[in-house]
Amino acid sequence: MAPDLLASLILVLPLASAALCALFLRRQGGLASAVSVTAAAAIAVCSGLLIFGGHREFPASWEWLRFGDFALSIGFKFDDLSALMLFVVSFVGFLIHVFSLGYMHDDPARGRYFGGLSIFMFSMLGIVLADNLLMIFIFWELVGFSSYLLINHWFERPSAAAASKKAFIVNRVGDFGFLLGIIACYWLNGTVNLSELATKGASGALVASTAIPLLLFCGAVGKSAQMPLHVWLPDAMEGPTPVSALIHAATMVAAGIYMLCRIHVLMVPDALTAIMWVGTITALYAAICAVTQRDIKKVLAYSTLSQLGYMVAAFGLGSLAVEHDTATPGEAALAAGVGAAMFHLTTHAFFKALLFLGSGSVIHGCHHEQDIFNMGGLAKKMPVTFACFTIGVLAIIGMPGLAGFFSKDAILYLAMENNTSVFVILTLTAVLTAFYMVRMWKLTFLGTPRTESSAHAHEGGFTLWAPLVGLALLSIFGATGPLGLFPKLAGSIATLIPVAHGSAHTTILIVSLAVMIVGAGAALLFYRSDKEDSLEQASRGFFRVLASKLWIDEAYGYYVGKIQQPFARALSFVEKIALAGFIIRGLAGVAGQIGIGARALHVGNVHVYVYWFLIGVVLFWSYAMGLF
Amino acid sequence: MPALPFYLLSAITAGCAIGAVALRNTVTAAFCLLGSLLGMSGLFVLLDAYLLAALLVLVYAGAIVALFVFIVMLLDVRGSDTRPATRVSLAAAGVAFAVLGAGLAVTFGRNLLATPAPLAEAPGLGASLKFYGEQLFTTYLLPVQIVGFLLLIAMLGVIVISKRFAPVEDAK
Amino acid sequence: MTVGLDQYLFLSALLFAIGFFGVLARRNAIVIFMSLELMLMASTLALVAFSRFNGTYSGNVFVFFILAIAAAEVAVGLAIIVALFRHRKTVMVDELNALKN
């Protein structure tokens, strides 16, 4: 089948499914779920054909709008990078669709949910396959909208409604910067098409500007929840767990990283330094916050934040491999950053989706209990979930042999080579990652059941554990190494991954092993299987500082409530008086006054009118006489 | 052009005009208007416009002034203004008269005391009805048609205005 | 002295002014109307005088039309006055001021 037809099918199928579900199948949840899952399966098949069929760089572009010289076109750019991302989105998406069949089986609004999932797949695949920045932006906004829809699935809950609004608004702030970046890119470089930008970059014709990549990075800050726009991701856990897995762990939040890799040709060293530090600080901050969380999904949310920080930092680190006297943007300089970031993105998608789905299985089994201090002893009650979840935890903390080990090592090696302070911070973050993940794992699965709901926990059905097994397999085999699948998926990207050799290799190996043992061991020893948080009991003040999340949410609330709202009210007042009052009604008021004045002339007395006539005659006569 | 008939007729015309304007009794005023019309008709005769003189009497005096008198009788106004015009309005009217009259007289009557221009030769100016008929139906055909249309409209208008409208029946 | 065009024109102007005075000074609508007719007559006189002293017929023919129009105008105007009288029971123009303001 022709590749552009396959690509078009990949986009059209989820759109058609979403349209069907939204228009006709709102009430038939079963039929809607069948339609949506079938569409997801078809997408996975088409993606497989595209990726493994060897089609790359087929030209396909349709001009949509034209304003003089500027043309907005819809097209596909399919190279190794998009092939890799397509695999992640379509296969992980398909597994999560299957999981949703079981998880949302009893939900009365299933039709709406599956419609939302389909529209999300459409939007995300649009971002993956897009060939110009404006198309990415369009689908970017669509993805934000789908996220809003799905977070808000249980809209009767005021917390869910507030969370979805928060997600959308915070994303909007980032998108403003993104749009400014696109405009700046078009203005300075004359095109927003990615292939054209790459050609210009290769020939050195790009304008070296720090503003463009930083503004474009704003979009990634919003979408991938970097500081300071990270506040929406923990709240987004109000949505159903499969949504959290798909959107807020594996794919949508990774779209920011993907976009950065797409525009790597525009990067300059200063921008990359800024990006690196933003990622690093986010990683550390999120890891600190995750230590104190009680909700299983919140722990995973902060873990996602932290890992996203890793990816962003990896991308930012890539530049320092180039000497500073060759400061022009170019592909070779960033190759290492792109490789490490995409590698970690892929492995993170696998094990984070696994962890989220595992937590979904746990929540489902414990009858919608989400507090880890109310669980315990689930290892025996839910063995398959336990096994898969353990694989996920081992992957994230860097057990040698599993996917996360290789990708994390790549990032740590890159940091060690390029920037020692970042390396130290990332290593500390890795310790914290191991610490809180093992804490969560221990409190959830080990020990004895602490409440009724966990005592009666049971494994879910086939649709609940089969995706877990699939993702666990991907977590084991999805990287490099002797049994790795990653090189087959990623093609040229895999060759960009920084691989340590010799003494550096040994150093990194020792560091990561040490990190894992220290973090995991501390958690295992420190936390008792208890209803209270042991750390909180140990030192209440320190715990409260950690749990405060540095009061960032409060700061935003203060700003919006006390600064922005009064400003908006003042503007509204000025608008009422100046614009609506003077300028708009002013002109009308002048006309009205003239009318009132003219009306006063209508005395009602005929004789007065005749006198007016006389005045007119006199005027005419004097004009005719030549008096004036 | 003999002067005496002119001055005599103009005295009649102007005097009756002032009477029409100033008299309190409306019917008397109407009759003064009639007298002014007769004087005007005589002036037309002096100007060799015999047909117009006859038409003036027929149409104006015979129809229009008759209509005026008829309406005065119909409305049964007590023939006098119940309140005389105030001094201010009279003074204003007098000023207006002075302004207008002076202006017009200055414009038209500048050469009043000079020797007038001789009468132009106008062969057949006192011509017959036939001549007027020819003119009306050839050169001035369009104005005739338009005036006919105007009279039709006026008739319709009068009928519509003077209808007494019955109160609208409430359909419910 | 011989009577020329200027004498006729002066008379016409005088009649016009008298009519104008009548419109301004009288309160009875019917009398105002009569004054209007007086003004019309003044203009017909001027027309005929011009026509005679220039040796053309066009002034005379114009007077034809003025007569017709004056007739129509009087008819409609008096009909309006009658209709007003029916509603307002008065023909004094200073009492007919419903269109004030």
In short:
The complex is a heterotrimer of chains A (628), B (172) and C (101). Chain A is mostly helical and 628 residues long.
Description:
The complex is a heterotrimer of chains A (628), B (172) and C (101). With 628 residues, chain A is an all-alpha fold. Chain A has a two-stranded antiparallel ribbon. Chain A has 27 helices and two strands. Among the domains of chain B are: 1-78, Up-down Bundle (Four Helix Bundle (Hemerythrin (Met), subunit A)); 128-163. Chain B contains six helices and no strands. Chain B has helices spanning 3-22, 26-46, 50-75, 87-108, 129-137, 141-162. The longest helix of chain B has 26 residues, at 50-75. The N and C termini of chain B lie far apart (76 Å). The mean pLDDT of chain B is 81. Chain C contains three helices and no strands. Chain C is mostly helical. The chains are: A mainly alpha (628), B mainly alpha (172), C mainly alpha (101). Chains in contact: A-B, A-C, B-C. Chains B and C meet through helix 1, helix 2, helix 3, helix 4 and helix 5 of B and helix 1, helix 2 and helix 3 of C.
Q: What characteristics describe this protein?
A:
heterotrimer, A: 628 residues, mainly alpha, two-stranded antiparallel ribbon, 74% helix, C: 101 residues, Helix Hairpins
Give the helix/strand layout.
The complex is a heterotrimer of chains A (628), B (172) and C (101).
Chain A: H1 3-23, H2 29-52, E1 60-67, E2 70-76, H3 80-103, H4 110-129, H5 133-151, H6 158-189, H7 194-203, H8 211-223, H9 232-235, H10 241-250, H11 252-262, H12 269-290, H13 296-317, H14 331-365, H15 378-381, H16 383-397, H17 403-418, H18 420-445, H19 452-455, H20 462-477, H21 486-490, H22 492-495, H23 502-526, H24 534-538, H25 540-547, H26 552-600, H27 606-625
Antiparallel strand pairs in A: 1-2
Helix pairs in contact in A: 1-2, 1-4, 2-3, 2-4, 3-4, 3-10, 3-14, 3-20, 4-5, 5-6, 6-8, 8-11, 10-14, 11-13, 11-14, 12-13, 12-18, 13-14, 13-17, 13-18, 14-16, 14-17, 14-20, 16-18, 16-20, 17-18, 17-23, 18-23
Chain B: H1 3-22, H2 26-46, H3 50-75, H4 87-108, H5 129-137, H6 141-162
Chain C: H1 5-25, H2 29-54, H3 58-88
Helix pairs in contact in C: 1-2, 2-3
